[in-house]
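Exercise 7b. Backbone tokens:
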């Protein structure tokens, strides 16, 4: 018998093309073709796998798609750690702290951390006591707010509290070395030793000298220790402290105001006059008081014999320096210092 006529849709090339492009149509045509049973089964299995492959790969793609939002959500903290952990700048100079914050990607604000409201004009004279991150707005640069005080002041306990300035401790009675050690934490500009006595000069080493007076006084608040000096007035070991500052250890001689004995002087003149004129005692007395008698000349010689200054009062002011004289007791004195010239031995 003649072979059955093959239709156009039964052509092998068309069936194979449909199995690749449209697997369901290719499978249908394969089973209507003249292929053997084995070929039809193989073509069906291969076309089916080819058709189902995209659907079998969807679950992994979906899982991968679901994991991407989580990765994106966690990316900002790892990408910008400075936002979560700003640099710790407490204790640093304000000028230096601002530079470091800006370099880390933060904006910067500052305010007086004390109960005052001073402006930070010279940033290098302020230090950071507190820092905080201001609430961020969407798309805005994070900002650090610094609470600051002046570099020579202590930080308050809390932002906005009064500054706890140090108070002057008591150092009277301590040796200078121990007193200096006690005052050093306050940060005085200078701890200056001074003599408690005006007529005593301090030696080079005064560590064992005792503090008699202190300035500032005990309990006084030191608001600017960096520009304040502490003055300690000292006495040498074994020397008692004076009752008040600016006292002499060896007081100057107190001037003695002896009663004038004019009769003794006149008597000397009368005796001298009597020896020269051999007059009566009453006449001699008169001539001692006269400017023309011998007694008068003898008295003038007595003044010149006293060094040109006559009778002097010990401790009294005098001039010129270098002049000499004698007291009424016959003791020689010289007009000299220290200080304003006085009659001194």
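Sequence design result:
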């Amino acid at each position: 018998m003649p072979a059955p006529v093959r239709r156009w849709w039964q052509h092998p090339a068309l069936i194979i093309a449909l199995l690749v492009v449209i697997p369901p149509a290719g499978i249908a045509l394969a089973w209507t073709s003249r292929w053997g049973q084995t070929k039809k089964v193989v073509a069906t299995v291969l076309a089916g796998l080819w058709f189902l492959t995209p659907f079998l790969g969807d679950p992994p793609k979906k899982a991968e798609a679901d994991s991407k939002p989580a990765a994106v959500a966690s990316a900002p903290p790892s990408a910008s750690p400075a936002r979560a952990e700003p640099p710790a700048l407490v204790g640093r100079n304000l000028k230096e702290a601002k530079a470091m914050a800006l370099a880390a990607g933060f904006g910067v604000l500052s305010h007086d951390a004390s109960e005052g409201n001073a402006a930070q004009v010279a940033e290098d004279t302020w230090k950071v006591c507190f820092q905080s991150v201001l609430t961020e707005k969407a798309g805005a640069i994070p900002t650090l707010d610094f609470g600051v005080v002046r570099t020579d002041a202590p930080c308050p306990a809390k932002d906005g509290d009064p500054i706890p300035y140090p108070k002057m401790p008591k150092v009277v009675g301590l040796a200078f070395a121990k007193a200096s050690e006690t005052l050093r934490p306050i940060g005085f500009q200078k701890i200056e030793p001074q003599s408690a006595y005006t007529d005593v000069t301090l030696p080079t080493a005064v560590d064992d000298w005792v503090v008699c007076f202190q300035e500032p006084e005990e309990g006084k608040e030191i608001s600017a220790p960096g520009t304040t000096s502490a003055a300690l007035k000292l006495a040498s070991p074994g020397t008692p402290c004076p009752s008040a500052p600016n006292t002499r250890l060896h007081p100057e001689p107190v001037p003695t105001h002896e009663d004038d004995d004019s009769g003794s002087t006149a008597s000397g003149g009368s005796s001298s006059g009597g020896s020269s004129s051999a007059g009566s005692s009453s006449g001699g007395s008169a001539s001692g008081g006269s400017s023309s008698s011998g007694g008068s000349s003898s008295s003038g010689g007595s003044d010149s014999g006293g060094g040109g200054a006559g009778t002097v009062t010990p401790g009294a002011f005098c001039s010129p320096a270098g002049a000499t004289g004698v007291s009424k007791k016959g003791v020689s004195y010289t007009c000299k210092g220290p200080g304003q010239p006085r009659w001194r031995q």
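Instructor comment: The chain has ten helices and ten strands. The first helix runs from residue 12 to 21.
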